[in-house]
Each structure stands twice: as C-alpha cells, then as structure tokens.
C-alpha cells in the first residue's frame, strides 16, 4: 500500500486567467473517484457555482486547466490544475481561456502519456492562434 502523494493547492484571485486543457476527457481518474471529488477533498471546500467569472451555472465537474491566459503562455506552463466548473466551461469551451472568480485550484499532475497528448493539442492551438493573427495582418 502506497501513501497518496501530497497535492498542492493554489488560491487564484478574482480575474485570474485560466486555459482549458484539451484531450483530458480520458485522463486517468484520481483516487477519490471523480475530478470534482478530488477538488473537494484537497481544497477542503464544497462549491455550488462554476468558477468562471460571470457564470451562474452549477459546478458539477472538475475542469483541467493551466493557470495561464492564451495559447502561448499556456504552452509554457507544465502544471495542471483542477477547478470546479459547469459542463459548458469544462467541455463546450475546450481550449478557450477565461477569467475566474476567487477560487482554490487543486493540482492534478498528469501521467506521461496524457502530457504528451496535451502537448500535441497545445501546439495545434498555438498554430491556430498564429494563423488567426497572421490572417488579420495581411489585408
Ligand atoms: Zn460555467
């Protein structure tokens, strides 16, 4: 029997930007059962509202995010975090960045294969982002 590794938490102040991580829907489930349970356990909080600023939906899921705004800074960040979010902010807006209310983020270290898969998505996002920038420049 192995002891559970310690899990880091970080307080995000209101207005902090996060970016969804793509390709995590089949990420390995944490010990606690689901990602929202993982978040509740390690943050010591229970939250009913989505962490996204201005969103009044119920937080039913634990969303994987990087604490970064935009694809470029997100690519540079290696650490993964869980915040409580609604279905829309977890899935519908995949790969988008958004601002959060004051919330505790709980670390969710990815397994190696998950990290590799997310890098691929990160590079695709960055490519898409640069393409959009370029198309705005060329008139
Ligand atoms: Zn939401």
Structure description:
With about 140 residues, the protein is an alpha+beta fold. The chain has one domain. It has 4 helices and 6 strands. The protein has helices spanning about 35-45, 70-75, 85-90, 110-135, and strands at about 10, 15-20, 60-65, 80-85, 95-100, 105. The chain has a 6-stranded antiparallel beta sheet. Zinc ion binds near residues 52, 57 and 88. Zinc ion binds near residues 52, 55 and 57.
What's a quick, concise take on this entry?
The chain has 139 residues and is α+β, with helices and mostly antiparallel strands. It is built from 4 helices and 6 strands.
Q: Total strand count, please?
A: 6
Helix fraction bin: 25-40%
List segments where confidence is low: pLDDT < 50 over at least 5 consecutive residues: none
Query: How many H/I helices?
Result: 4
Averaged pLDDT: 81
Oligomeric composition of the shown chains: single chain
Strand order of the largest sheet: 1-6-4-3-2-5
- For the terminal residues, how far apart are their CA atoms? 63 Å
Overall outline = globular
**What small molecules does the structure contain?**
zinc ion
What is the makeup of the main sheet?
Answer: 6 strands, antiparallel
Q: What percent of residues are in strands? A: 15-25%
